[in-house]
Amino acid sequence: MQNTVPSPSYDLLAVGELLVDLIGHDVADSLLDTRDFHRYQGGSPANLAANMARLGSRSALVSCVGSDNLGVYLKDRVAETGVDTDYIATEAEAPTSVVIVSRTKGTPDFIAYREADRCLRPEHLPDELLRRSRIFHTTCFALSRQPARDTIVDAARRACAAGCQVSLDANYAPSLWPDREGARRVIEAYCASKAFLKLSEDDAARLYGSPQDPDRIIRDFHAMGAGLVCLTLGGEGSLVSWENGSRQERIYGERIEVLDATGAGDAYWAGFLTAWLRGNDPAACARAGAALAKMKLTRKGPLPARVAVEAIIKG
Fold it and tell me: What is the distance between the alpha carbons of residues 218 and 223, in angstroms, rounded to a whole number?
């Protein structure tokens, strides 16, 4: 009898921060002008997993929360989206992480109180789980603290060796990771696993210390080993590059009324990766990402509980 290889259990294994977002109720440029806050489940990997579950993908989240009621709240909210929460660990010696965020039409102002989210250890990411996943994803936020940093970089290497596509949201922020050169070395080590990498112009400016030409950004990340680079350009759209930069596609933005920019990047990447899982080329993936980001930008709060794939992937 011929042996068969079982299908992966998860389309997406999202690894990193799960935390409470206290988001400003009214639009304000900064936290200085924000008076009232609403509580939400937050954390970019958790949001990405939830968005892909909304689109019908099988998602799991690997993260750490505290042994407290905020940790219970977060697990419950993630479970409601359809994401597998079996790999969310409880850290007895650190409380659940909290981020305070302004509600804005641009890049939010925020303060992060980092605790349990940084406590990922190798035992949380066994080889067997990596072998059953199609995409392994994390963020610069997750990579900015130990022991999570070394744990995740090593797991990405093992995931790539197991045939899993590695993904990174390079959402670098110097307030979270003051060692800019150290951050670039860690990102390079992660990109060596042929990562699909997403970053915004603002992310790049923070990582380089000043705004940079898109061609340089893309060239540098391909040189680090990234198999695909997606640079989002705000209202101007996005630029996606693959095959070591020999193939590129510009996706132009459209004029819309922005109600809430929080989580738009996670929505974009969820649409992109969902289209990639369905065999679309990078240009079509970028268009799918733009469609889901538009859906998020034009509503307050999270996306609907379910989103039809046909709403973002045409043809």
Answer: 9
Q: What is the DSSP string of 81-131?
A: TT-B-TTEEEETTSPPPEEEEEE-SSSPPEEEE-SGGG---GGGS-HHHHH
Q: Which domain holds residue 201?
A: 15-311
Residue 5 lies in a domain: no
How do residues 30-77 score in pLDDT, each as one tens digit?
Answer: 899 899 999 989 899 999 999 999 999 999 999 999 999 999 999 999
In this model, does residue 11 exceed pLDDT 90?
A: yes
Number of domains making up the chain: 1
pLDDT tens-digit readout, 202-222: 999 999 999 999 999 999 999
> In whole angstroms, what is the distance from residue 299 CA to residue 168 CA?
26
Is 227's pLDDT higher than 70? Answer: yes
| Residue linked to tokens 């979270």 | 176
CB 68 within 8 A of CB 96: yes
DSSP string, the chain: ----PPPPSEEEEEES--EEEEEEEEE-SSGGG---EEEEEE-HHHHHHHHHHHTT--EEEEEEEESSHHHHHHHHHHHHTT-B-TTEEEETTSPPPEEEEEE-SSSPPEEEE-SGGG---GGGS-HHHHHTEEEEEEEHHHHTSTTHHHHHHHHHHHHHHTTPEEEEE----TTT---HHHHHHHHHHHHTTT-EEEEEHHHHHHHHSS---HHHHHHHHHHHT-SEEEEE-GGGEEEEEETTTTEEEEEE------S--TTHHHHHHHHHHHHHHTT--HHHHHHHHHHHHHHHHTSSSSPPS---GGGTS--
CATH of residue 36: 3.40.1190.20
Residue 2 lies in a domain: no
pLDDT at residue 7 in the model: 55
Handedness of CA 239, 155, 55, 202 (dihedral sign): negative
